[in-house]
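Could you help me review a protein record that somebody else here produced? Here is the record exactly as it was handed to me:
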Amino acid sequence: MAMASVLLLLLISAKVTPSSSSSSSSLSDKILQLPGQPHVGFQQFSGYVTVDDEKDKSLFYYFVEAEQDPASKPLVLWLNGGPGCSSLGVGAFSENGPFRPNGKVLVRNEYGWNREANMLYLETPIGVGFSYSTHSSSYVAVDDKTTARDNLVFLQRWYDKFPGYRNRDLFITGESYAGHYIPQLAKLMIEINKEQKLFNLKGIALGNPVLEFATDLNSRAEYFWSHGLISDSTYRMFTSVCNYSRYVSEYYRDSVSPACSRVMSQVSRETSRFVDKYDVTLDVCIPSVLSQSKVISPQQVSEKIDVCVEDKTVNYLNRKDVQKALHARLVGVTSWAVCSNILDYELLDLEKPTISIVGSLIREGIPVLVYSGDQDSVIPLTGSRNLVRRLAKELGLNTTVPYRVWFEGKQVGGWTQVYGNILSFATIRGASHEAPFSQPERSLMLFKSFLENKPLPEAF
């Protein structure tokens, strides 16, 4: 609470500017045109927000206004995971942003989420992508608490740049380790709002999220076995001799036991490095941007990521003309990377559950959607579904939408269940860990229904 009090003083002291769509400081962040970009009718902005004046900590953002009538659309903050992977490179340019790099040009993403909302992508924490500090110590021992604090200050100071969005409906979405980032940020918002209403938070959506270390990671064994990736005997070893949460815990303490080493070697042999664990049906030639879950999937020494296609996003964002157009700069690194090479994150924060924080948000009346790409074995749908069902029971929420299919484009889009009209679980059929990358049309339908607080379509 002491930290929240300090933040409260910091935020309340910020001068409230008159309401308008943007301020003079945001105009300098306006993107005139990205290199190779097709003509569009919406505005784009990018640049920096300083979150710590003393240490000169600045977070980089990319903001895309809605395609049509942005004044009537909500604001959505998108966060990618890792921890340490870029919301610009993964979220914006590979998943649900308006463009995707293709050689020297950008092509329109027909299913970009700015069709439904004003999208704000944040490269967080410090040291990710174009975000930087002039003090190298800022990259050391970064943890969930520091990240939540920096993200909170970012958003308040971003509102100073764009005062017209200050009272706009706000949703926070993201995936993977954002299952830690988002609930902790939302919790701080709720605490601040009890003193002064600063954030008009309307809901959070968490895609293939890390919410409870053991449940999420240990559901991997059943997923592997049920999809034919491991044998019966290896499944028994994977659940009795050394489960996955034990292995990860030992790995990040530099104390992998011989028993766990043997089990993981066997699992690796059978699943094969030629199968993408983020989408078990996808061929192995995938962009390296799909490696954002590096922390929750530590690799065996002998295992290497097989990247057999050109990473167009990395090439595009390392162009000097692109960086100039984005008002971006490299500080402390020689090139932009999808996942940070300089960030020293407190990896044991992975073991701290955030599902209880999600429960506290629901008690405060904040709607929550947990969704899963059903081809992801890194954070499988089975673990997420069990966690949501368990949380609903703890909160005394009855089923308001029984488990059923939902549709998009005259096909089954996935399955869903809703509890108490405030806690929802949904799968996206055929989707990977990065659902909007692999199933963009179905992901957009899920997103649209979430924003409008409407049931997913029961028919086509």
